């Protein structure tokens, strides 16, 4: 069984793919099956969140591309920017992982949150889609990769220091 241990910083060609939903892309230790059917051990640095398009070096030297799997999500739209911001505010207040797009939000399916959003006047549609939530202001951000999915592209998150040092 090969091990996937190194996240590559620069684009390269790849020999296989690893297709995972967001919940599994947050784990640093995981037994996985590549698209080819080959078993592998994912052993990346703790705290690493894999994004669709990330590349991993396998113990045998091959490069494996991470693919964000389609999964049950809710797509949220609203009549105007104020209503969409209101929906985002209420989801953020509940610390819901949230993907932000141009005029839409995406979150994991949850009937309670769906009812809340409808009550706020948002339009909510169930869909199967890759889920790439924001890393958060303190999450160190992430890089974007061109996949031809302009609708899913979003601005990177600022890399804000997790500690502010007091200077005398």
What does this structure look like?
It contains three helices and ten strands. The longest helix has 13 residues, at 81-93. Residues 141-168 have low confidence and may be disordered. The N and C termini lie far apart (54 Å). The strands form two sheets. A six-stranded mixed beta sheet has the order 2-6-5-1-4-3. It has a four-stranded antiparallel beta sheet with strand order 8-9-7-10. β8 and β9 form a beta hairpin. It folds into two domains: 2-68, Sandwich (HSP40/DNAj peptide-binding domain), CATH 2.60.260; 70-160, 2-Layer Sandwich (Alpha-Beta Plaits). The chain is an alpha+beta fold and 168 residues long. The chain is elongated.
Brief summary:
With 168 residues, this protein is an alpha+beta fold.
CATH architecture of the largest domain: 2-Layer Sandwich
Oligomerization status of the protein chains? single chain
The first-level CATH class name of the largest domain = Alpha Beta
Strand arrangement within the widest β-sheet reads 2-6-5-1-4-3
What is the CATH third-level topology name of the largest domain?
Answer: Alpha-Beta Plaits
